Amino acid sequence: MSLTLNELIRKLKAKEFKKITIAAGAGISVAAGLSDYRSKDTGLYDQLKKFNLSNPEQVYDINVFRKNPSLYYSVSKEFGTHNLDLQPTFAHQFIYHLDRNDQLLNCFTQNIDGLELVAGVRESKVIQVHGHRRTASCIDCKKTYCVKTFYQNVDKSEIMKCTDCNGLIKPDVVFFGQSLPQLYFEKLPEISLSDLVIIMGTSLQVQPFSNMIYRINENVPIVLINKETNLRRLDPINNKLLIKGDVQDIISSIMKQL
Ligand SMILES: [Zn+2]
Known about the structure:
Keywords: Metal-binding, NAD, Transferase, Zinc
Largest sheet: 6 strands, parallel
CATH architecture of the largest domain: 3-Layer(aba) Sandwich
Cofactor: Zn(2+)
CATH superfamily of the largest domain: TPP-binding domain
Strand order of the largest sheet: 3-2-1-7-8-9
Active site: 130
Binding site for Zn(2+): 138, 141, 162, 165
Number of helices: 10
Protein name: Deacetylase sirtuin-type domain-containing protein
Structural class: alpha/beta
Bound molecules: zinc ion
Strand content: 15-25%
Number of strands: 9
């Protein structure tokens, strides 16, 4: 038997779920004004075509950055992805609601915007698997720098270098070729403790999310809220609730009933 939407809402309201794992992707921040990565035409990767890259992921590749940091600088400047003043969406407020009611086990997020924290979710519950932009650091000696200074350099198209070792500075976002944050590895086993898993705004294509679902215990319901719900990875899962549509609209509707 799969969970239904009415049951989900009833059980959330009755606080029957006490260890909810959230897996959140770019789709939960679209309503805040951030571009997601993979949507056709409007996604960042499609918009990057004007940079004539053979593979748009090169922008976030540590080896490419070492050789040609100006590519990341240009893209950051062009798309305003350094906008640090975004506001949380309904999805972020929903995660905060769960935390405030002691129903949140962990929130794994692919997003680097930190809006989960802005919404009020406790820092110990938020695992930003691809890092964040609260600080910047030297890619060689790891010395920490103010991220605002980094983005001032982006605006001036001046490459920022470490005052100690002359290494390149970048925000503490995980690039391809860099290891994931330690907190991710510490919290990953806790997924097996979940009594409900809610996946929002991601199509589970990017590691480590694509494999995280295999750690969920059998019979634990998985809810997917996304504009695309036909995900082959979820085929083997029996107890699942797929809610297809705009994440902001769907969460707004659920929140009104809690
Ligand atoms: Zn350095």
